[in-house]
Backbone:
């Protein structure tokens, strides 16, 4: 408060209040406001420096960071789902597909391995939310690797499946002659009485009785190895190489329908029943070889027989009768 000043007026003989000059008064008011303003500004700067309040820009940045954090959380939830599905596929891969195709299961550690060696995440370090970002990136890397391994495994299985399909088509898995009522099987694989000498000896094939000229079919895909009369006992005969160590042999034919070197499919007509070679009556003597050993063809008819039929055939085949050779 400025002091009120008085002066003596000789005309009125009284003291009068001394009015300050107008400009001076304005100046005082201006100083007051300027002072208040500066003081306020100083206070504001101090407040801002102490982080007690934020600028609108800071507020909006903080909101953005919160939003990023939320999005990361959602991403992690989604990754959780992906991991679950991938885990499921890996299980099926190991326990069904790879098992079925006789491939070794891929160990869990190998499927879920991250990336070792140098620190790949160095550039992500040093920020407030580095932990979260590094953890998420690592998780994604593991998923990426898991998918690559899974994809490789499925490629391998596709190849194995194609191989298996080829193998299954090649195995001599049907009867070489039309035998719907199974009455044509005359003698099976095993010890039989020789039709000529009557001595008990091993019969390495299966005999199917059928009239001369009855069609004979290839029992699996393969290549005709021989179609000739140059092996003692078999007469006119055909050998088919099926690959994978399998070979089938059809003996005592009357006629050929294929030539040496020809590719055949399962079920192709290759020749006709006869009684050439060491044979007592028209019949087909049929053999299956695996790795140069003759084995029981009976075990390969699963492709064309029902379980009952198989049982019936087994009964016929095991009768120790006389073979037709
Ligand atoms: Zn025979």
Residues:
């Amino acid at each position: 408060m400025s002091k009120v000043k008085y002066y003596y007026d000789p005309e009125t003989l009284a003291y009068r209040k001394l009015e300050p000059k107008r400009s001076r008064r304005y100046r005082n008011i201006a100083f007051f406001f300027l002072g208040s303003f500066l003081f306020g500004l100083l206070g504001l700067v101090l407040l801002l420096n102490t982080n007690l309040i934020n600028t609108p820009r800071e507020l909006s940045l903080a909101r953005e960071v919160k939003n990023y954090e939320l999005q990361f959380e959602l991403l992690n939830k989604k990754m959780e789902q992906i991991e679950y599905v991938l885990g499921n596929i890996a299980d099926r891969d190991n326990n069904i597909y790879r098992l079925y195709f006789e491939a070794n299961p891929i160990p869990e550690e190998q499927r879920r391995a991250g990336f070792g060696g140098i620190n790949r995440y160095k550039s992500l370090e040093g920020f407030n939310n580095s932990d979260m970002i590094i953890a998420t990136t690592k998780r994604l890397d593991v998923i990426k690797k898991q998918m690559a391994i899974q994809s490789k495994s499925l490629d391998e299985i596709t190849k194995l499946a194609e191989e298996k399909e080829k193998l299954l088509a090649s195995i001599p898995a049907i009867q070489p002659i039309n035998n719907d009522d199974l009455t044509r099987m005359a003698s099976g694989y095993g010890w039989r009485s020789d039709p000529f000498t009557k001595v008990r000896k091993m019969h390495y094939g299966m005999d199917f009785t059928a009239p001369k000229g009855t069609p004979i079919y290839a029992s699996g895909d393969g290549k005709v190895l021989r179609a000739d009369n140059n092996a003692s006992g078999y007469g006119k005969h055909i050998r088919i190489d099926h690959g994978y160590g399998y070979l089938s042999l059809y003996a005592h034919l009357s006629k050929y329908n294929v030539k040496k070197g020809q590719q055949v499919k399962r079920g192709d007509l290759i020749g006709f029943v006869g009684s050439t070679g060491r044979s007592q009556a028209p019949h087909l003597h049929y053999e299956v070889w695996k790795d140069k050993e003759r084995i029981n063809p009976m075990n390969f008819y699963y492709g064309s027989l029902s379980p009952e039929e198989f049982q019936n055939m087994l009964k016929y085949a095991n009768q120790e009768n006389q073979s037709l050779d």
